[in-house]
């Protein structure tokens, strides 16, 4: 068994496939490729990849369906590669289970940055060296202060076990949704702007001044909408996710 993380590129366009393969290889992944959706699902089942890049327009089944099928057995970080920016809203709104979206043409360094941010996040309870910040993770440089457990209005989040329980029921969140929820719980009543949250997803400091596009902010809005739906939260009378119009989000007040 190799220690390298496994990456899977599902893409029918040869040039893009090779470009993404190169980016992932340089990031230290063992990379496999698939040129159709059905093949991609099969390879994902066999290799249990850590990260998957998924083309939306595949020759057999589309990327949404591929993502849904992969989500049935995998918690891989899925980056959907899509053709046009204006489709972004629809794409994310479809709740395909993807964690992130990049529109083509994208710059290799954009993809690199997102993969790097993903690698700094704990993957799951199944890998205790990553799930326990400050423990073995210190050796890999992936050090986070104890991010802890939160409890608010009937919702409990455990960072170490990556679980969210609402009124006793465990939620099935994507990594992105989990990170957004965690960021709000951590901030309490302090407002997090959309760009703050974009940076959080990239695992950057809040004040580094890196470029945040409108599509990035829009994507936070849509992920937040999906998260709200999963939690059964109401935008009008929020228990957890309060929208601060034109600015961002914060945690709703406590019920007691
Ligand atoms: Ca394609």
UniProtKB/TrEMBL annotation:
<dbReference type="GO" id="GO:0000156">
    <property type="term" value="F:phosphorelay response regulator activity"/>
</dbReference>
<dbReference type="GO" id="GO:0006355">
    <property type="term" value="P:regulation of DNA-templated transcription"/>
</dbReference>
<dbReference type="InterPro" id="IPR001867">
    <property type="entry name" value="OmpR/PhoB-type_DNA-bd"/>
</dbReference>
<feature type="DNA-binding region" description="OmpR/PhoB-type">
    <location>
        <begin position="147"/>
        <end position="253"/>
    </location>
</feature>
<dbReference type="GO" id="GO:0005829">
    <property type="term" value="C:cytosol"/>
</dbReference>
<keyword id="KW-0597">Phosphoprotein</keyword>
<keyword id="KW-0804">Transcription</keyword>
<dbReference type="InterPro" id="IPR001789">
    <property type="entry name" value="Sig_transdc_resp-reg_receiver"/>
</dbReference>
<dbReference type="GO" id="GO:0032993">
    <property type="term" value="C:protein-DNA complex"/>
</dbReference>
<keyword id="KW-0805">Transcription regulation</keyword>
<keyword id="KW-0238">DNA-binding</keyword>
<dbReference type="InterPro" id="IPR039420">
    <property type="entry name" value="WalR-like"/>
</dbReference>
<feature type="region of interest" description="Disordered">
    <location>
        <begin position="122"/>
        <end position="141"/>
    </location>
</feature>
<feature type="domain" description="OmpR/PhoB-type">
    <location>
        <begin position="147"/>
        <end position="253"/>
    </location>
</feature>
<dbReference type="Pfam" id="PF00072">
    <property type="entry name" value="Response_reg"/>
</dbReference>
<dbReference type="InterPro" id="IPR036388">
    <property type="entry name" value="WH-like_DNA-bd_sf"/>
</dbReference>
<protein>
    <submittedName>
        <fullName>DNA-binding response OmpR family regulator</fullName>
    </submittedName>
</protein>
<feature type="modified residue" description="4-aspartylphosphate">
    <location>
        <position position="55"/>
    </location>
</feature>
<dbReference type="InterPro" id="IPR011006">
    <property type="entry name" value="CheY-like_superfamily"/>
</dbReference>
<dbReference type="Pfam" id="PF00486">
    <property type="entry name" value="Trans_reg_C"/>
</dbReference>
<dbReference type="GO" id="GO:0000976">
    <property type="term" value="F:transcription cis-regulatory region binding"/>
</dbReference>
<dbReference type="InterPro" id="IPR016032">
    <property type="entry name" value="Sig_transdc_resp-reg_C-effctor"/>
</dbReference>
<feature type="domain" description="Response regulatory">
    <location>
        <begin position="6"/>
        <end position="119"/>
    </location>
</feature>
């Amino acid at each position: 068994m190799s220690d390298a993380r496994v990456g899977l590129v599902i893409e029918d366009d040869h040039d893009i496939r090779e470009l993404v393969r190169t980016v992932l290889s340089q990031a230290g992944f063992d990379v496999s490729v698939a040129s159709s959706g059905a093949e991609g699902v099969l390879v994902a089942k066999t290799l249990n990849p850590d990260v998957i890049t998924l083309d939306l327009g595949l020759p057999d089944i589309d990327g949404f369906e591929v993502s849904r099928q992969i989500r049935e057995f995998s918690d891989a970080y899925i980056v959907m590669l899509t053709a046009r920016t204006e489709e972004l809203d629809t794409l994310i709104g479809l709740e395909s289970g993807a964690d992130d979206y990049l529109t083509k043409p994208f710059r290799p360094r954009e993809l690199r940055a997102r993969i790097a941010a993903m690698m700094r996040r704990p993957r799951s309870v199944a890998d205790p060296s990553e799930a326990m910040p400050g423990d073995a993770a210190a050796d890999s440089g992936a050090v986070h202060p104890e991010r802890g457990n939160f409890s608010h209005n009937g919702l409990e989040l455990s960072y170490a076990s990556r679980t969210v329980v609402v009124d006793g029921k465990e939620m099935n969140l994507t990594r992105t949704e989990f990170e957004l929820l965690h960021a709000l719980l951590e901030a309490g009543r302090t407002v997090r702007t959309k760009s703050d949250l974009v940076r959080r997803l990239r695992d950057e400091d809040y004040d580094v001044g890196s470029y945040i596009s409108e599509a990035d902010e829009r994507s936070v809005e849509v992920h937040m909408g999906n998260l709200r739906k999963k939690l059964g939260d109401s935008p009008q009378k929020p228990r957890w996710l309060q929208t601060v119009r034109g600015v961002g989000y914060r945690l709703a007040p406590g019920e007691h």
